[in-house]
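Supplementary notes for students who missed Thursday's class. We covered one full example, reproduced here. Read the sequence, then the structure, then the short commentary at the end.
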Amino acid sequence: MYEIVLAVVKRSKVISVKEIVKKTGFKRGEVIKALKFLSLKGKLIYMNPRIKFNSSCENCILRKLCNTKGGKNGIFIN
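Structure (token representation):
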């Protein structure tokens, strides 16, 4: 499962959890679990979906790579 999620993220570079669920067919909880695991292993960066304000984006180190505009989650490949 982890390899499939990582392959989908690698193809897209920046993607949301919703898109990964749609492309893989896994449940949302399983995808989030896989993303957290891969993030701990250093394979990708998983941004928490709790970011709600654009001011948070201004302070984020990934602001130049991210096009989520706050309020959404983003997954970035290292």
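Commentary. The chain has one domain: 2-77. The radius of gyration is 12 Å. If anything here is unclear, bring it to office hours.
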